[in-house]
TrEMBL record:
GO terms for molecular function: aldehyde dehydrogenase (NAD+) activity. Signal peptide: none annotated. The lineage of its organism: Bacteria, Pseudomonadati, Bacteroidota, Cytophagia, Cytophagales. InterPro entries: NAD(P)-bd_dom_sf, NAD(P)-dependent_oxidoreduct. It comes from Pseudochryseolinea flava. This is SDR family NAD(P)-dependent oxidoreductase. Gene3D superfamilies: NAD(P)-binding Rossmann-like Domain (3.40.50.720). GO terms for cellular component: cytoplasm. It comes from the Bacteria.
Amino acid sequence: MASKTGVDMKAGTLSILGCGWLGMAVADRFLREGWQVNGSTTTQEKLSTLTTKGVNAFLVEMNPHLQGSALDRFFHADVLLVSVPPRRKAGLTDLYNTQIESLSIALTKTNITRIIFISSTSIYDDLNREVFEEDANPSSYLYRAEQCLFSVENYKTTVLRFAGLIGGDRHPGRFLSGKQNVDGAEMPVNMIHQQDCVNIIMAIVQQDLFGDVFNACADLHPTKKEFYEASSRALNVAPPTFSNNVHTPFKIVNADKLKEKLQYQFTYPDPMSMI
């Protein structure tokens, strides 16, 4: 659980740009805490699903520029959570940067002053060591997206660089099941459970800790072979087999900064307990 020290923000309105796997879990938590929640989706069919859960549903798209029928109401909020995962296929990362740039311009015309931007630890190269917030690759499209939001005046952005996301209906046993000759058997994995993601977002808001960058990753780092074989056993599915390549580059994501500043202890510090 996160510490309740610091400045507690009273329940207000949270807008979630991207009410998907993570965004919906965050919405559920904030609704339980008495917040009003605006949630966006890109599909007409999901509007009723969000409404049924108590979310004020909005159809919002970035194609690549921000568009929607009621953007003024969607952005009328105390905090904005940007949870729009990029598509990493060739050529689409530039599209993502254009989307974020369009968002940053639109935000200058809103009353929002606090933003949480969901980034990823894929911003780090495999440096064969621990990586810290200052190790981000400045040529990464994610780094450019982060800097785009940091550069606009009049609001504070906190960036959360999440490790591999699991939990809920996202079980790692399905990720590599049955695959052959997978590289990296001995490389350490970097994972975070959905519940910790939600708890960390809530702690950022409760403690009003905006204007910073944090890695968010479980404390322990079992090997890829250990983790995915155990995950396959948990689902009773075919495990992957691994190659003999023992020289696969790796990184170990360090989240000490987040734990210190938030006084946060992970609910799932060991990825093996997430399975």
